[in-house]
Specification:
single chain; 291 residues; alpha+beta; Phosphatase 2c, domain 1; 2 domains; 6-stranded antiparallel sheet; 5-stranded antiparallel sheet; globular
Length: 291
Amino acid sequence: MKADFKGFCMQNYYHAQLQGPRDYQEDRICVLELTLPSAAPDQNGCEQFLHQVIGSLHQSTFALNEDHCGSTCTIALLLPDNRFFIGWLGDSPALLLSPHGCDLLTREHIPGCDPVFQVTADNCEDVQGFQRVRSLHPVGEEEGDPIYQKLAVSRALGDNDFPLIRTPDVMRGNLTPGNMLAIASDGINTIMNYDGHFKSDAGINLDYAGDNPAEYLADRAHLNRPYKKGDNISVITLPFAADRSSILLAAVFDGHGGDRVADFAAQQLRVIVQPLWQKIFFGKTFILPEY
């Protein structure tokens, strides 16, 4: 089933999306090139940049003032020397791919978060929704537990349904020859096990990925999902390159209960990225647009 499948191969990156059995596509993806500063971007600057980008996206999406559950956000920054930085909120994973398989680089956000970000049965208007989310996420079962009878649900951009924690995590790494970085929506989880590796029975062999490894992974995720069920699938892959001359920023947004926040976040990313990059690495000041 590839009727609604869209796969693209561009210089130094690949991406693919599959809507699947759902009535609409909740995922949004974006790949941008950034201006290369005269000196190599440093670790602190790159981490600060990702924190500011995700923080600005949350401000703009939260200001929509609508009843919605927000969106995940996973952003990868790949430098010409093949260093990479990843910032994320929620459960859209980042993977390190190699000829031997994959390693999960990110973890789903289910923290024992600050009480101001927690939801309890007493302050949740949607009791059925509370029970549904509680069944999917751990809660404290004993008095004294910091999340006793509270939900520890996933982080999200622009959430107005549950007031979730918005602080992103940022990690870094290096690509080596033969390796690839991938970011995806959680639809790819049909081929992943709980240890963060490909399932042994998923039939994944990256030697057969062909010209577009992102399309290959999305197609395998589609083939491994339950009959007539499953999530949207979006994948971006960024391979090692010895001659990369630009900085790539790739992002995946997976809307919660609709595409409104994910779509708006992808649009806003194009607006705020270059000014923030110029501010941090070129010393230029700017004012973010009013939302």
